[in-house]
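Example record

Each entry pairs one chain with its bound ligand, S-adenosylmethionine.
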Amino acid sequence: MNKETIKQQALKLDAALKTNNKRKTTLWLNKLIATNDQLKDKRLSAQIGSQLTKIKENLDNKKICIEYTGLIITMLTYSEIAEQVEYGREFGEHYTEQSRNDMFWYTWMHDTIIRNANPKKGDTIVDIGCGNAALSIKLAKKAKKVIGVDLSEEMINEGRKAISKLRIKNISFKLTPIEVVNFKKNSVDAVTTNLAIDHVKDKLAMAKKVYKWLKPGGKFVIGLAFKVEQRFKEIVERKRKRYPHLAKKTEDSFAEHVKQASGAYYEKQPIEFKVSPHELAAILQKAGFKTRIVPHYLPWFSVVVGQKITS
Ligand SMILES: C[S@@+](CC[C@H](N)C(=O)[O-])C[C@H]1O[C@@H](n2cnc3c(N)ncnc32)[C@H](O)[C@@H]1O
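Structure tokens for the complex follow.
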């Protein structure tokens, strides 16, 4: 039995608990117990099993049961993306090393994200997949506070080192997968993310969550590395013709980056679920955003902007 089935059943149990449906709660709880027993990963199965036992013992206390179900979903999410944590372990320092230089292709992403997020003095910004906080630091100079979210302890440690060196006080971190983090409704002025959303499998769920956190008019600004599509190639080509010196500068800096990055970085890239800018924009629209795509000078990068529409 695979983890995906268990996750689906846990979500059904969660829904049954929330709607106080006793019959469905018992049904999904029993199904989960049976499928969990067949899970190949015995360690995970034992952990989930102990949460299920607690739910069974506390069936009358809805609040406690919902908490246990939430824990199961979190556990499954963590286990699905365990590879990403490994990636952070191996590449924390290495990443900082290679992204430290002012590479034009990379700083273009940050600058374009910041310009579109347009942080103001009183703003709260969430930077998801913040890594070594390279983008968070730039945002923090313009905003009231920045919350960086990343699942890699090593990447966040790099970020902590950088902010203490720079004596920056308005950045805090949450060490957790993007998939399970949450903020209050209408509490955030902008959400940014650079080169991280590729690692999120369910981008629509992510977009819906971000939509809730944002204040009306707030923006979700995404630096994307993606699969190249023909119509985007043509858009980039037109931009390159208009600004040939910037196109050249971008190409040279990217070639330099590839040389520095070494083969290992690309061989060991974590799991990616790539989408094109147009596919991502369509996902954001489904979540309620009004969208815009900003082309890069290279056809495999872009910034996609979603704005929460005020009604
Ligand atoms: C390529 S780095 C980008 C870091 C930073 N945003 C920047 O501009 O340099 C991708 C980051 O996403 C993080 N990441 C990948 N999948 C994640 C997930 N599911 N939840 C939270 N962080 C994740 C990685 O740990 C890594 O730090």
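Strands lie at 124-128, 145-150, 171-175, 188-194, 214-225, 289-295, 301-308.
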